[in-house]
Amino acid sequence: MKKNISNTKTNSLTLRPVYSRQELKSRIVHIGFGAFHRAHQGVITHQVLANLGEDWGICEVNLVGGEELITALREQDHLYTVLEKHPDHTQAKVIGSIVESLHPTFDGISAVLEKMAEPQVAIVSLTVTEKGYCVDPASGQLDQENKAIRHDLFHPDSPESAIGLIVSALRLRKERGLLPFTVLSCDNVQGNGHVASQAVLGFAELQDPGLAMWIRENVTFPCTMVDRIVPAATPETLSDIETAIGVYDPCGIACEPYLQWVIEDNFVNGRPRWDIGGATFVNDVVPFEEMKLRMLNGSHSFLAYLGYLGGYAHISDTMENTAYRHAAFNLMLLEQAPTLNMPTGTDLGGYALQLITRFINPALKHQTWQIAMDGSQKLPQRMVEPLLYHLRKGSDYSALALGVAGWMRYVSGQDEAGNTIDVRDPLLPRFQAIYAEHGLDSAVVKPLLAIESIFGTELPQLQLFVDAVTQAYQQLLEHGARYCVAALNVKEGD
Ligand code: NAI
Ligand code: CS2
Question: Which of the ligands is closest to the CA of residue 129?
């Protein structure tokens, strides 16, 4: 038998789950067994089980890719390792909250649907990336032109999208007289619960208005703010984990020590005591979500585009350059924080300092290229609203304008040394067409800003903004990213 984490003693027996995993049932079906979920919901649920011994197990589903990962997970009895990387030491935990897994490729989509229709399933949670919601990012409405959505509308028994799958599973529950489940989005999408709800209801309306009404009356879609920096695993990550636990774990994942989960407490069919595992239940998540998306993710995107162009492979590398560090801090505090409406007493200065410390962590090799991915889906919630705020108020938005110009320069597909950039984005063909027409020239600014699903309709009409981005783009062409980031600090009187 192949030696793995389930059949071999790890370096320390205390790493093992202390609760009886036989008692666990799949009361949560999670769609999107990626890096983040393993280090976040998987861990928090594990902590609850370790403290309370309840029966909230998780069944994992991957709709897109991940076949090898699911196969490996099954071979090791669904146990996996999380390695927390502090700047100067690491800490490993073996997580036991996952009890089963399904993949349409091996098990067929009907097995996934049947699982979601089992009576004990109370929550269907999601980490399917921004594009997995099949919505127009600027309006949040279901994208009826999406290929998977078009397929699913006419094939309720064999859905391909997460949205089609959820609607079909809810149909089964309605037909069988079962309680519904809560749909819990854990993606970095502003108002993620509302977006999930709009997508699910928009889809159900088109397919079956009666079902849509039942969903509207019976299902809830709590919003959540999720936070933990979890870079994609590399061979180095897996080797670090092997060193820590003494056995190779292909499902292992490394992450930062910090962890936050703020959840709107609105569940229709029960929920685990995730507060025991470190989550916070609140009535209104929106302010926390906006704070995180604008201050953390907004500056992450800024650092990803300008860092990649400046020749930095990781976020921690950009932080070694004082100009980048100051620019990120100023972006958070001077351009993003003022756009927020936080509960009294929220210390945004302290939050910004904490974010910079997290970004500096040299043990966390978080690639700028990874964060740069899918910019068309990320910019709307990270930069567009704050830009509109400043343009209405007449306040400074130089760092945000440079961030947008950095994204535009990045999606050209060519770095500052003339090497190819592997740009990953659902709108790549659109970017390529624009660059094919105009070349590496500031003439691309207007057609890129005209992409309504990213920038909406108001922003591209504001000449001041168009001029600011055009100027920043021109500067990037002439002087490069490092120069522009340094010049930004001089401008802000740093
Ligand atoms: P990953 O690349 O490891 O996993 C992506 C997951 O999404 C996979 O399970 C894949 O099957 C699924 N997926 C991709 N496209 C899909 C689609 N069209 N329909 C259905 N499923 C789809 O990425 P990771 O790191 O797990 O991140 C996933 C999401 O989690 C992010 O997009 C973000 O919204 C959120 N997140 C990630 C954090 C991180 O630091 N990695 C932190 C906070 C939130
Ligand atoms: C990052 C996020 O990839 C990205 O776009 O900005 O995944 C970031 O690491 C997390 O949101 C941190 O919680």
Answer: 1
